[in-house]
Amino acid sequence: MSDIAIFETVAAMREAVAGWHAAGDKVALVPTMGALHEGHIALVREGQRHAKRVIVSIFVNPTQFAPHEDFKKYPRTFEGDRAQLIAAGADAIYFPAVEEMYPPGFASRVLLLGPAAVGLDDRFRPTHFEGVATVCCKLFTQSRADLAVFGEKDYQQLKVVTRMAADLDLGIRIVPLETFREPDGLAMSSRNRYLSAEDRALAPLLHEVMQAVAVRIRNREDLFRAVGEAQGQIISAGFELDYLEARHADTLALVTSLADGPIRLLVAARLGGTRLIDNIGV
C-alpha cells in the first residue's frame, strides 16, 4: 500500500501547497469530518478532475454541534479513512487537532444571513451554519486551495459555503457534486451507521416520497397540496419530521409554484436517534 502525506499543522500544509503551486499544480480541498464512505471518495475523484493535487481534511468540528447533538459519539475512523484515501489516490490528509484549528484565545466567527437564515436547518440548529462557515473559512485560507468540493446532500450547507466564499472574496471556487446514494436510494451519510435494521429498511422512503412530489409539481399540481400530503405520508410512516419544503434552488427562498424559478425539495427527519437529510431538484 502506498502512503499519503498527513499534515497536522497549517504550516506543514501551506509549505506543501506552496510547492505544488510553484510547480504549476492546481490544488483541490475536500472538507470532511471523517467516517468516510463512497460519497466522500466521489468528492475526491471530482477534485482530481479539476486539480492535480487533492487534500482531504478530516476534522470533527465542535463548533457546528449543539450541546444536545452527537459530537462525542460522532464516528472517528482515521485508519480506515486513511486506507480509503490512499486507494483513491488522494495526495494528503489535513488532520489538525482542535487546538490547531481553535487555538487559545480564538474569538472570531463568521456572521451569516442569506441562505443560512431561511428557516430550514437553521430553524432546528441555530448555531450550526455559523460553525460550518467559520471552519470552512479557516480551511480555505489555511490550505490556500484553488477549489473545494462539496456534496449536494447537505444542500443548504453548500449554498451557505458558496455564498460565503463569494462574499468574502476568499479566492476559492466551490465545486458541487450530486448526492451519492445507496442502491435503494438512501443518501449516503456517515450517520446512516446509527440506524437500526428496521429503521434502515424504512429510511429510503424519504427519497421515494420526494421523487413523487417532484413529479406532481412538474405536472403542475398544486404545490402546497403535494408537499402537505407528502409531509403527512412521512409522519404516518413513523418519521419525526423537521421539514419537507419546496424552495428556490439558488436562494432557498419560499416558492409558491414553478413560476417562481428552479425548485429544490429539501427534507429533514428523524428515525430513532438518527437525523436524516436529503434533497432533489424538481
Model description:
It is a single chain. The protein has helices spanning 10-22, 38-50, 78-88, 98-101, 121-124, 128-143, 155-167, 197-202, 205-218, 223-236, and strands at residues 5-7, 27-32, 53-58, 92-94, 147-151, 173-177, 240-248, 263-271, 274-281. It is an alpha/beta fold and 282 residues long. It folds into two domains: 5-177, HUPs (Rossmann fold), CATH 3.40.50; 190-276, Pantoate--beta-alanine Ligase, Chain: A,domain 2 (2-Layer Sandwich), CATH 3.30.1300.10. A six-stranded parallel β-sheet has the order 1-4-3-2-5-6, sandwiched between helices. It has a three-stranded antiparallel β-sheet with strand order 7-8-9, with helices on one face. The chain is globular and about 55 Å long. The mean pLDDT is 95.
Features:
2 domains; Rossmann fold; Pantoate--beta-alanine Ligase, Chain: A,domain 2; 9 strands; 282 residues
Count of helices? 10
Strand order of the largest sheet: 1-4-3-2-5-6
CATH class of the largest domain: Alpha Beta
| Relative strand content | 15-25%
Rg, nearest Å:
19 Å
> Which homologous superfamily in CATH is the superfamily of the largest domain?
HUPs
Structural class: alpha/beta
State the low-pLDDT regions, or none.
none
Summed over residues and divided by their number, the pLDDT gives a mean of: 95
User: What is the number of independent domains?
Assistant: 2
Element order: H for helix, E for strand: EHEHEHEHHHEHEHHHEEE
* Strand runs, count: 9
User: What name does the CATH topology of the largest domain carry?
Assistant: Rossmann fold
Helix content: 25-40%
Shape descriptor: globular
At CATH level 2, the architecture of the largest domain is: 3-Layer(aba) Sandwich
Taking the sheet with the most strands, its summary is: 6 strands, parallel
- Kindly report how far apart the N and C termini lie: 43 Å
